[in-house]
């Protein structure tokens, strides 16, 4: 009882502060148009000098811009949308590392198909997915997103990561597009996913996956510079050790680069 009594005044003070108009934070209307507002998604802050300047990160980005002469480390990910291990790897390891080191250090290739099977029937490719129909549908949706943004992976990856991290992955496309790619419509993506283009893209992914040598044994099957990456939670370490250009700050701050 004593601890609850001690806690109550603090809680009511907090409540009071939240309810007081305009105190303690600034209200949105008062921010005004005095300086350009950083409206880009965080992943795109280093995409141009203007964006970096507006978002006040030119210093941070300049390290990245110096690194563009070395070839980025390639990471290919063979996955399927409903496998928990795949979702965990993308959301907990791959996406954060990609955000930390950037496109100039890490070249990510996503291939949604995984352990599915394909057959040719009645003029189209039919797919049989490990986690059922829904997985086939979501794999195709992600293949379509990767195709729609084939020249701009940094637009596709946040949407895909958002879907894979969602508690309701089945209905995640629309809210994820709304937040990370508002110019793309659900209709555009679904037209691809439900039509011949989606079918063709999934067939290509099937071919890429089934032609792997050595063949994949499980998902996610992750190749770093064409070699199997087994310690999936060590991705950052291997990327830092493999990259030939000047190391990004996040590698230098981690002593593993120098201890092996
Ligand atoms: C990234 O990887 C893809 C697929 O392996 C390759 O075609 C592409 O050339 C690579 N990009 C760079 C910049 O190395
Ligand atoms: C292919 O067509 C046949 C005959 O119309 C039909 O019985 C069969 O279910 C179709 N297969 C698929 C996978 O749609």
UniProtKB/TrEMBL annotation:
InterPro entries: Interferon-induced_GILT (IPR004911). It is an enzyme of class 1 (oxidoreductase). Residues 1-25 form the signal peptide. Keywords: Disulfide bond, Glycoprotein, Immunity, Lysosome, Oxidoreductase, Redox-active center, Secreted, Signal. It holds the Pfam family GILT. Its EC number is 1.8.-.-. One of its GO terms (molecular function) is oxidoreductase activity, acting on a sulfur group of donors, disulfide as acceptor. One of its GO terms (cellular component) is lysosome. It is found in: Secreted; Lysosome. Its main location: secreted. GO terms for biological process: immune system process. Belongs to the GILT family. Lysosomal thiol reductase that can reduce protein disulfide bonds. May facilitate the complete unfolding of proteins destined for lysosomal degradation. Plays an important role in antigen processing. Facilitates the generation of MHC class II-restricted epitodes from disulfide bond-containing antigen by the endocytic reduction of disulfide bonds. Also facilitates MHC class I-restricted recognition of exogenous antigens containing disulfide bonds by CD8+ T-cells or crosspresentation. Lysosomal thiol reductase that can reduce protein disulfide bonds. Facilitates the complete unfolding of proteins destined for lysosomal degradation. Plays an important role in antigen processing. Dimer; disulfide-linked. This is Gamma-interferon-inducible lysosomal thiol reductase. The gene is IFI30.
């Amino acid at each position: 009882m004593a601890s609850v009594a001690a806690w109550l005044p603090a809680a009511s003070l907090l409540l009071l502060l939240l309810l007081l108009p305009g105190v303690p934070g600034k209200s949105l209307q008062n921010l005004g148009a005095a300086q350009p507002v950083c409206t880009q998604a965080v992943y795109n802050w280093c995409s141009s000098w203007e964006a970096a300047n507006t978002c006040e990160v030119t210093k941070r980005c300049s390290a990245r811009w110096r690194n563009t002469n070395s070839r980025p480390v390639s990471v290919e990910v063979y996955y399927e949308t409903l496998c928990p291990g795949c979702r965990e790897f993308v959301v907990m390891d791959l996406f954060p590392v990609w955000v930390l080191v950037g496109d100039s250090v890490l070249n990510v290739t996503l291939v949604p198909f995984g352990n599915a099977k394909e057959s040719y029937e009645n003029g189209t490719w039919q797919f049989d997915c490990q986690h059922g129909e829904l997985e086939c549908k979501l794999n195709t949706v992600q293949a379509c997103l990767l195709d729609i943004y084939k020249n701009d992976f940094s637009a596709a990856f946040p949407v895909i990561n958002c879907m894979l991290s969602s508690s309701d992955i089945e209905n995640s496309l629309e809210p994820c597009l709304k937040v990370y790619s508002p110019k793309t419509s659900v209709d555009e993506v679904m037209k691809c996913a439900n039509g011949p283009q989606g079918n063709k893209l999934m067939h290509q992914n099937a071919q890429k996956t089934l032609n792997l040598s050595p063949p994949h044994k499980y998902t996610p099957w992750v190749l770093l510079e064409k070699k199997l990456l087994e310690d999936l939670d060590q991705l950052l370490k291997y990327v830092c050790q493999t990259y030939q250009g000047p190391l990004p700050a996040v590698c230098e701050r981690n002593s593993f680069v120098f201890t092996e």
